[in-house]
Amino acid sequence: MLQTRRLPDIADVSSSNLGLDYEWNQTDYRNNPRKGWVVQLTGTAGTKKIRKNNEIVELKDPSDPAFDFERLYDTVKLSSYQFRVKANVSRYIRLKGQSVIRTSLNGGWFQSGSIFRNELFQIGGFKLLRGFDEESQYLSEYLVATLEYRYLIGLNSFFYVFTDGGWGGSRGENRQQHRYFSTGLGLAFETKAGVFNLAWAVGKRDDTRINLQQSKVHVGFISYF
Fold first, then answer.
1. Is residue 57 part of a domain?
2. Residue 219 — φ and ψ, nearest 5°?
3. What would the pLDDT profile of 31-54 be if each residue is shown by its tens digit?
4. Which of 10, 42, 87, 104 is the most exposed place for a label (fewest CB within 10 A)?
5. Pick from 55, 110, 50: nearest CA to 75
6. Are strands 36-51 and 12-27 parallel, antiparallel or unpaired?
7. Is it the case that residue 2 has pLDDT exceeding 80?
8. Which of 26-35, 52-61, 96-105 has the weakest average pLDDT?
9. CATH number at residue 158
10. Long-range Cβ pairs for the range 73-80 (8 Å, 24+)
């Protein structure tokens, strides 16, 4: 920061929000649907305050002792609004025999006066956008589509192959936009403790190439009560 004379991409932020959640589930079996639709919407709106960091305010540059680092906060809005929206739409299509197709579309949008890295959505990994490190993609907006074929081997167990693809961008200090793609296969199997999910996937961003040596193994677990 002594050289760049810029605030770090992480800030001390406090916020107050009001939110609304909505879910519509019209599937034949909630835990492992064969057919039907699921719609989930989440929205919040509120205000936030950025607190000045004492270590930054008291910082001194030996080569320029007169420079006041507190002035760096003049470049951001210390008090501002914020809006955050997340949505998911999934459809399950029953084919012949034990085959099921799952399609889904996930999106997120965050808007505020000044956006810092620790306020962004974090996607990637088992929950969304397989083939990437867990929560490695910091984004203020994203849209991810999934196409998945499942072959059922039990009430809550199935083999599957999938493709995830989408777009994401960040309107923070370091503005960027990227396209994403991943593909892989996996197995969900039920035990007495719950359902374990193992997936192997390889992913790429538009500024990288597919590299099988960088493939990921994702592990998930769901316990039903």
1. no
2. -125, 130
3. 999 999 999 999 999 999 999 999
4. 10
5. 50
6. antiparallel
7. no
8. 52-61
9. 2.40.160.50
10. 73/7, 75/7, 76/7, 76/11, 76/50, 76/113, 76/114, 77/50, 77/113, 77/114, 78/49, 78/50, 78/52, 79/47, 79/48, 79/49, 79/50, 80/47, 80/48, 80/112, 80/113, 80/114
Q: Which residue has the tokens 């620790």?
A: 118
| Domain of 214, in residue numbers | 20-47+81-222
Cβ contact 144:164 at 8 Å = yes
Q: Which residues contact 112 (CB under 8 A, 6 or more apart)?
A: 48, 80, 81, 82, 83, 119
Name which of 171, 151, 172 is nearest 162 in CA terms.
151
- Tell me whether residue 141 is in a domain: yes
Report the alpha-carbon distance of residue 75 to residue 87 in Å, rounded: 32
Pairing of strands 121-123, 36-51: unpaired
What the block records as the tokens of 217 is 């193994």
- How many domains, in total, are found in the chain? 1
Report the percentage of the chain scoring pLDDT > 90. Answer: 78
Per the structure block, which two tokens stand in for 162?
A: 């999938």
* Position 74 in a domain: no
Taking the model in full, what pTM does it have?
Answer: 0.90
